[in-house]
Amino acid sequence: MLEILRRLTQGCLSRYGLSPRATATLINYTENLTFRVDDPASGNRLIFRIYRVGCRDREEIESEVEWMSALRRDAGVETPEIVPARDGATLLLLTDSTLPEPRLGAMFTFLTGAEPPEDRLAESFGRLGEVAARMHLHSKSWLPPPGFKRPTWNFESMLGGPRPLWGRWQDGIGLDSEREKLLGRLAEVVAQRLERFGSGHERFGLVHADLRLANLLIEGDKTKVIDFDDCGFGWYLYDLSTALTFMEERPDAQELVDSWVRGYRLLATLTRDEEGEIWTFMMLRRMTVMAWIGSHSDTELAQSEGAGYTVGTCRLASQYLGRFD
What we know:
Blueprint: H1 2-12, E1 23-29, E2 33-39, E3 44-50, H2 58-75, E4 82-83, E5 92-94, E6 103-109, H3 121-141, E7 152-153, H4 155-160, H5 177-197, E8 204-207, E9 216-219, E10 222-225, E11 232-235, H6 238-243, H7 253-265, H8 272-275, H9 278-295, H10 300-324
Parallel strand pairs: 7-11
Antiparallel strand pairs: 1-2, 2-3, 3-6, 4-6, 5-6, 8-11, 9-10
Helix pairs in contact: 3-7, 5-9, 5-10, 9-10
């Protein structure tokens, strides 16, 4: 399937006026497929994304692009721009006799820069917090256009409802009855605390929902943000929990949280009550990613994390319940 989609991507390149020498190289496969496009004839470098079947419809993708454009225009946050084909189309429908279902694809500008260095994580998390604050302030003041459509990230859609966005946490890899009982209690406590926390305008709005170091590019003093595929309506603090994805058990995890908070407070307010629920959002994220791993077992990331992620989630759950249950 990957080779079929690579071939379809390669076949699309002429629609963007690229030369016959242009190539498409797969650089990421998690939720969607991301190809780097290089055209040696012009020196152009672009990004082509193929969306996972059943994940995002046309209206959701167009809304994602709307918010990225608004952030560039109004908030000074540098984001990728969508690149139209020569006929003006911004979304392509990819079809082929060997493809079970059509796929949507889109071309974006390639942003230069490098992922923040791991040897200065605390400093990098400060940058994450600052850019999150800039985006949240924009979210609180921006009026989305008519027809704007993005997913809602709340407890029901993530863990509690009949059809969670990323699958059921109960289908996580490596669960047994004892672990399921522990995580079931964790879900109950998280749900109770989130209900008390509330979802008013100051705490809940349009968020990136995957604001990790891997989605930040640094170039000099510029901080650029990529991969808005998960953006939607959720708690602002959820962006902090996404920053710690796969890092919650690090010995310096709390130091990284503190750096994020300091960076955030350079631009925006974070109350003590909100700060007190940071680990509630960490556990919400942790269980949601566990569900993702269970429902995306075809991806390299899910296979590399496997049951170990579930075991780690149980360790964190025991620590959390020791404090909050």
